[in-house]
């Protein structure tokens, strides 16, 4: 899979998520559904007790709390691009568990990962990676033998409505490309694609939703009053439904084990 660094400005992504932190959980409906599905798949597939866990892209801690409560790890390492999120995540986890909670904040592609991990988990984050193939190899080296790598990420056709109307959007890898990259050093035990549609009354609500969830960190479209009016008309005409307009999310789910 090719590097995509020219399309992703991570500083801009971080600023967008930081601006959206007060509205994120209210608007991140699909992200919450994806978190629950990912956790269910991890539970259903069984495997070892996850005592040493790294979560990548903890954001405000929605998945962090689910993982923490389900597995009660001895070591829980939290990562996100935005260091300011750590205190809110830590607050969600409470103080009742005796395990160690450790921050590892910054760009995960350039950080040294902990060793002998039982589980590396991430939800709705890896679409921001610049070189996912190289990073998946890095994850493998951080896992213990038989350790589990479980994640979801947004993929092709996510926000395709916006991309078709504005020409702006992430260049998502294909599901096949992601599976091929993971399978170089892991055995894939589960892989699937989920599709979700959100309904909005008006295209302006779509734009507010995207801004509130921080995903507007990929930019370049220059709005003018005329462009906005055309955008609204085109959105209604091309993506209207009986309930207003729709916005697409496509999520890849992959759970794999390190070979050895």
Describe the structure in your own words.
Strands 1, 2, 3, 4, 5, 6, 7 and 8 form an 8-stranded mixed beta sheet that branches. It is built from 10 helices and 8 strands. It starts with 9 loop residues before the first helix and ends with a strand. α3 runs parallel beside α4. The chain has 260 residues and is an alpha/beta fold. α4 (62-71) links the parallel β1 and β2 (75-79). It has helices at 10-19, 24-27, 29-44, 62-71, 86-93, 132-142, 160-166, 175-182, 203-212, 225-239; strands at residues 52-56, 75-79, 100-103, 117-123, 143-154, 186-200, 240-241, 244-258. Mean pLDDT is 88; it is low at 1-7. It is globular. 38% of the residues lie in helices and 25% in strands. It has a single domain (5-258), classed as Vaccinia Virus protein VP39 (Rossmann fold, 3-Layer(aba) Sandwich), CATH 3.40.50.
What are the key terms here?
10 helices; globular; alpha/beta; Rossmann fold; 260 residues; disordered N terminus
Tell me the series of helices and strands, N- to C-terminal: HHHEHEHEEHEHHEHHEE
Class by alpha and beta content: alpha/beta
Mean pLDDT: 88
Which stretches of 5+ consecutive residues score pLDDT under 50? 1-7
C-alpha end-to-end distance: 24 Å
CATH architectural group = 3-Layer(aba) Sandwich
Helix fraction bin: 25-40%
The level-1 CATH class: Alpha Beta
Per DSSP E runs of 2 or more residues, the count of β-strands stands at 8
**What sort of overall outline do the alpha carbons produce when their principal axes are compared?**
globular
